[in-house]
Amino acid sequence: MKKEEIMTKVSGTFNKVGFQLKKHSPEILIVAGIVGTVASTVMACRATTKVGKIIDKTKNDVDEIHDATAKGITKAGEDYSIEDSKKDLSVVYLQTGVKLAKLYAPAIALGTLSITSILASNNILRKRNVALAAAYATVDKSFKEYRKRVIERFGKEIDRELKYNIKAEKVSETVIDEETGKEKKVKKTAFVVNPSDVSGYARFFEKYTMDEDGNSVLNPHWENNNEYNLMFLKAQEKYANDLLRAKKRLFLNDVYDMLGLPPTKAGQVVGWVYDAEHPIGDNYVDFGLYADNLSYSDFVNGADPAILLDFNVDGNIWELM
């Protein structure tokens, strides 16, 4: 193998390792800071066990000085004045301070480095979050402008169909026969939406939802009556707007909770901000309700009745407030 090839491979390996270290530097720094903090505490405790000897030595020296001052002579029989006493006491206290500083210096140094490491980790994460927020704001703005152009040219219905990939399909629905009073299956044309095609903030309000463990559970707010469901959603939408005006900010997870929907990671960051004088967004919460808001959520086992909701979040609340 040629020397140039070897150097290229070595250089590539070092660059890759260096990038990985830089990528995970916040985690590395925080772990180092925690370990260093614990280690410095242990070192300080060990140093404290040795403080007694230094204090005892200092106490003996001070007692000898006071005794010599009271008698006016030292143990060697030399004259000893108050001025001599002050000088000797200053020396003893200075030496004691130096000894204590040397004793605790390693623990203090390590503790300082540990705190610096933790602060550096936080600084890196803060810069990355600022960059992510800026990137999100750019993408969000571009997408909203794109949708605005689609609505202006083709209308809201076309925009909704394209955004959620809504398709008209035949679905089975159980109804009550007015003549016999028995249940029967009928075919009808309905709008079917695949959950994987909706936006990251959109959710289906339906009979079953997911709990924190990912299990399918009954949504306590769902009724087998679309008019009631729409009435409930409109009431919750109004309540959400009341909360927004009162608290001046509202997280998406707060709205999910109102509707019996599971929280998301994005939901604890994005939401709405209310500012009557200088509006940042729409200044109101919109669930995306429309006239015939009954869609069908297309799952593996078939199509189930559901109401598709899409929320007009303003963006990252932490950056907007």
3D structure, described in words:
The strands form 3 sheets. Strands 1-2-8-9-3 form a 5-stranded mixed β-sheet, with no helix packed on it. Strands 6-7-10 form a 3-stranded antiparallel β-sheet. It has a two-stranded antiparallel sheet with strand order 4-5. The chain contains 7 helices and 10 strands. It folds into 2 domains: 3-130, no CATH class; 167-320, no CATH class. The protein has helices at residues 3-23, 25-71, 82-154, 156-164, 226-247, 252-258, 317-320; strands at residues 167-176, 183-193, 203-206, 208-210, 216-218, 249-251, 270-273, 295-299, 302-309, 315-316. α2 (25-71) packs antiparallel against α3 (82-154) and α3 packs across α4 (156-164). 57% of the residues lie in helices and 17% in strands. The chain is elongated and about 125 Å long. The chain has 321 residues and is an alpha+beta fold. The longest helix has 73 residues, at 82-154. The model is unreliable at 298-302 (pLDDT under 50). Pfam families: DUF6353. InterPro entries: DUF6353.
Mean pLDDT: 79
Strand % is 15-25%
Structural class: alpha+beta
For the record, the count of structural domains works out to 2
Please, how many helices?
7
Instruction: Report the biggest beta sheet as strand number plus sense, adding barrel if it closes.
Output: 5 strands, mixed
| Radius of gyration from the alpha-carbon trace, in angstroms | 36 Å
Topology, pairings included?
Blueprint: H1 3-23, H2 25-71, H3 82-154, H4 156-164, E1 167-176, E2 183-193, E3 203-206, E4 208-210, E5 216-218, H5 226-247, E6 249-251, H6 252-258, E7 270-273, E8 295-299, E9 302-309, E10 315-316, H7 317-320
Parallel strand pairs: 2-8
Antiparallel strand pairs: 1-2, 3-9, 4-5, 6-7, 7-10, 8-9
Helix pairs in contact: 2-3, 3-4
